[in-house]
Amino acid sequence: MDKHLGSVQISPHPLNIWKAHEQYFLRMQRNKEKKSMEKMEESNQCKRKLRVCVATCNRADYSKLAPIMSGIKSHPEDFELEVVVLGSHLIDDYGNTFRMIEQDDFDIGSKLHTIVRGEDEAAMVESVGLALVKLPDVIQRLKPDILVVHGDRFDALALATAAALMNIRILHLEGGEVSGTIDDSIRHAISKLAHYHACCTRMAEQHLIAMCEDHSRILLAGCPSYDKLLLPHHREDYMDIIKSWLGDKVQEGDYIVALQHPVTTDIQHSIKIYGLMLDALISFNKKTLILFPNIDAGSKEMVRVMRRKGIEQHPNFRAVKHIPFEQFIQLVSHAGCMIGNSSCGVREAGAFGTPVINLGTRQTGRETGENVLHVRDADTHNKIYHALELQFGKRYPCSKIYGDGNAVPRILKFLRSIDLDEPLQKTFCFPPVKDPISQDIDHILETQSALAVDLGGTNLRVAIVCMRGTIVKKYSQPNPKTFEARMELILKMCNDAMRDAVGLNCRILGVGVSTGGRVNPQDGVVLHSTKLIQEWSSVDLRTPISDALHLPVWVDNDGNCAALAERKFGHGKGVENFVTVITGTGIGGGIIHHNELVHGSTFCAAELGHIMVSLEGPECMCGSRGCIEAYASGMALQREAKKLHDEDLLKVEGMDMKLSEPITAAHLINAAKMGNSKADAVLTKAATALGVGIINILHIVNPSQVILSGVLASCYQAPVQHVISQRALFSVQNIKVVTSDLEEPALLGAASMVLDYATRRIY
Q1: Would you identify the CATH topology of the domain 47-222?
Q2: Does residue 511 contact residue 505 with C-beta atoms inside 8 Å?
Q3: Is 744 exposed, middle or buried (0-12, 13-18, 19+ CB in 10 A)?
């Protein structure tokens, strides 16, 4: 036996080696996961909260900032809130409103007395300068990651300027909006200084984009105050609130809230408007809660006007410096009307449908709901009084233009997404933006009217048509045969009508043109016309008329205009789907489907006269055969009347017909009424062709009503209804055929294009 045998090492089994390796790798994996978890915990511990400084300058901006402050405060794991108070919050004359911030349980980190008294332009400038002197120390001490500023006040401009120069990120609320005073310039200046934006409306967002702001740094949040406004606003104690401010005898909806501020770009005029407003309110004789104006230049003079008129002692008035926001919205919500130029009127009041009268230019350009009536040129006591008569006691649909009640959650999410490591430098782009739309009382006091032009084969007619569909004045001339003469006559007649409209107290809002043939209404171009109107193809009607009259111009086919006239003034009013068929010299019409006019892809829809009802019928003016127009138009009936006359088969006993007069469709109809079987057969065939064509329309678009218009309508109504009842599908046999009551459908339809769109005035 080998002496070394006892020391021989035996190799381990392969399975044991694999197990050892497995245990090693598992141990390594656990260590790796443990280190990863420790690293994540360390990262979470190192991640500091976002330090947000909210700066408020007055009672108005606090109503927008308070919901955000509450939201920030309720998430202490994400944010640290610092509150800076300055401006009119700290002035006794304006209610020392910083106290309501303390009452809302917010810790005020800094109070800055920044207002230089004087309430004139110089004092405003000095106040900005004083704020700029005091703010750097506060910002250096607080070291916020982001400063939240609101709106368009001069105090906010000082805040944004100081923060931008000290490389503090700025979130600007309510940028991109448009109004009519120096506030616009201040607001846009703050937007240019701000790094992030929380805006209220889609249009404001577009304005910011058009001002070159980076779209990725713009949040469409809605107005934060709407988060409170859209909570159930009919509080059980709302009557207690009303009575505490206005007295025990005041009822809901039977009082006015008045709030008028100076316009710093035209102080004297705004003071005059303020006096006229007070006079109108005194005359109107309703209980009125009137708030003192803000601290802008001119406010002292406005208070003097108030005191000269004895408003503070007047039994109908209650003059106050400040009302807590929660109570103020109750008072606005249940008011019979709000009057003045406060942004609350054009913004928050819309959430309740409260009627508002906006005086002067301070809010010009703001987006508004239909509850706002503008009196921009508030130059007389009577005009403001008339506006009160129009608005007081009305209720309008609630508007959510400025928010849906979820602004604060969006803003908090936006704040969390801010990367403090990204560069502060902004990027820019240049998209377009639309203008705001609203109404003005001048357009209500005057008779809002349209110029209607009807280009017929024989006559050229122009009319002044008012909003109710009344033709105030009408002009008619033979239609010239050449393009140049026709355009010259159109412009002359329109200019004559424009001059007459002034004396008739009619405000012309635009021009509507009805013409035969195929029309592109989008471009205002006649693509090609009927044979009755010569030299009338590829004609741009909109440009020369608009350039000459400086008015918007709408152009459409005469059949479509007849349908529009019925929709606005006739049997089609309130009917969602109907068809109008014109039975005159030719056959035309229009189709209204879901309240909209059907034009078709090449503007050839509703050529109802050229629906074929026979393969071998008489030749039509369009070049085809068997069209409705070839059977049932006035020209077709005239043709058949001449044939009967030439064969001496038209005249019957008792029929008065002079040898020299031309034969017309009227002779055929008269002969049929007097028992002429040949004439009656022609009319029956024509009515059957028209009825079959209308059945085709019923089977394709299934309207709920058919309106016959034109000189032959009464002749065709009964037989067409009979044809439908005999030949149409059962589901449409009971659809009514009615005759139009409108005397001038082409003119009224042309006018309706103007009156439906131009009353939504653009400023």
Answers
A1: Rossmann fold (3.40.50)
A2: no
A3: buried
Q: Whole-model pTM above 0.90? A: no
517 Ramachandran zone, left/alpha/beta (phi>0; psi -120 to 50): left
Amino acid 649: pLDDT: 86
| Tokens, residue 140 | 């250096």
User: Average pLDDT, stretch 393-421?
Assistant: 89
Tens-place pLDDT, residues 374-391: 998 888 889 999 999 999
Domain 235-391 in CATH 3.40.50.150? The answer is: no
Question: Is 46 annotated as ligand-binding?
Answer: no
The model's pLDDT over 262-312, given as tens digits with 9 standing for 90+, comes to 988 888 998 999 999 999 999 999 999 999 998 888 888 999 999 999 999
558 is catalytic: yes
The confidence score (pLDDT) of residue 379 equals 82
Residue 502 has pLDDT above 90, yes or no: no
Is 22 marked as binding a ligand?
no
Q: How far is CA 637 from its chain centroid?
A: 49
Residue 507 assigned as binding residue: no
Same fold, 442-570+753-762 and 572-741: yes
Whether 700 has a pLDDT exceeding 60, the answer reads yes
Residue that has been written with the tokens 């002009």 in this structure:
475
Q: Is 161 labelled as part of a ligand binding site? A: no
Please tell me which residue in 155, 296, 556, 558 is annotated as part of the active site: 558
Domain extents for the chain? Answer: 47-222, 235-391, 442-570+753-762, 572-741
Task: Please indicate if the annotation marks 200 as binding a ligand.
Answer: no
Interstrand relation of 459-466 and 447-455 (parallel, antiparallel or unpaired): antiparallel
Contacts of 445 (CB under 8 A, 6+ apart): 383, 386
The angle that helices 713-727 and 677-701 make with each other, rounded to 10 degrees, is: 60
Residue 530 assigned to a binding site: yes
Q: What's the average model confidence in pLDDT over 105-126?
A: 88
* Higher per-residue pLDDT: 259 or 516: 259
Q: For the domain covering 572-741, report its CATH number.
A: 3.30.420.40
| Residue 531: pLDDT over 80 | no
How far from the centroid of its chain's Cα atoms is residue 169's Cα? 34
Sign of torsion, CA 519 524 527 530? positive
429 labeled part of a ligand binding site: no
The amino acid at 682: V
Instruction: Give the DSSP per-residue string, 659-707.
Output: SSSPP-HHHHHHHHHTT-HHHHHHHHHHHHHHHHHHHHHHHHH--SEEE
Fold adopted by 442-570+753-762? Nucleotidyltransferase; domain 5 (3.30.420)
pLDDT surpassing 70 at residue 22: no
Structure tokens at 359: 């005086």
